[in-house]
Amino acid sequence: LAKTTQPISMDSYEGQEVNITCSHNNIATNDYITWYQQFPSQGPRFIIQGYKTKVTNEVASLFIPADRKSSTLSLPRVSLSDTAVYYCLVEYSSASKIIFGSGTRLSIRP
Amino acid sequence: GAVVSQHPSRVICKSGTSVKIECRSLDFQATTMFWYRQFPKQSLMLMATSNEGSKATYEQGVEKDKFLINHASLTLSTLTVTSAHPEDSSFYICSAREGLAEITDTQYFGPGTRLTVL
Does B44 sit within 8 Å of A44, measured CB to CB? Predict the structure, then answer.
């Protein structure tokens, strides 16, 4: 059964590095992992996408272990404006399913 | 690049009426568009997938006669909620994907439409 699981919430402080993990046990060889940020009453905003090992862009890094059953979104030096809900998305090709994780509500404090 | 718009951003209607929501890809051609529904404090749930020029594929439990989807061009998809009822009140979000490389192409999301049915 294709399932995408995340922690419900996380708290951190400005300037810290935040790591959010997503579990996707039934991911197939060709399935990509994508992370989005969502603010209230807005559509999700693309952060990063990866397939294996490590991907880095100007806002985040994505770490994917060899078994690909999980992935970790890393936000360096967060600020108050990073307070949002973060979703991982996996398109499970074997099941023809697109499944968002339950979302992780990240709260950043001064 | 990769901008997706939705219209309207917010709509309030009476029970029994129909509401049409438009989703446009502004700077790319979208061979595939997706429609999601999001209830308060919940994740996004896929309702249907539409490919330009063909019938939409609906997820299990989504009534195709109630949620009519038309993907008439590579830049426009519409969702019509027919005979809306209060339980249809939700945040509807579309996404669009460019190109035919379905495995790797990213979904880019619209800003969402808040539907309230009285």
Answer: yes
What is the SS3 string spanning chain A?
A: CCCCECCCEEEEECCCCEEEEEECCCCCCCCCEEEEEECCCCCCEEEEEECCEEEECCCCEEEECCCCCEEEEEECCCCHHHCEEEEEEEEECCCCEEEECCCEEEEEEC
Per residue in A9-64, pLDDT (tens digit) is 999 999 999 999 999 988 887 788 999 999 999 999 999 999 888 999 999 999 99
The rounded distance, in Å, linking the Cα atoms of B22 and A1 is 33
Residues B105 and B58: their CA atoms lie apart, in Å, by: 21
Give the minimum alpha-carbon distance from A28 to chain B in angstroms, rounded to a whole number.
11
Q: B75-115 pLDDT, tens per residue? A: 999 999 999 999 999 999 999 998 655 555 789 999 999 99
CA-based end-to-end distance of chain A: 40
Nearest to A79 by CA among A12, A7, A10, A20: A12
| Residue in A32, A43, A46 nearest the CB of B111 | A43
- The answer to whether B114 contacts A41, with C-beta atoms less than 8 Å apart, is yes
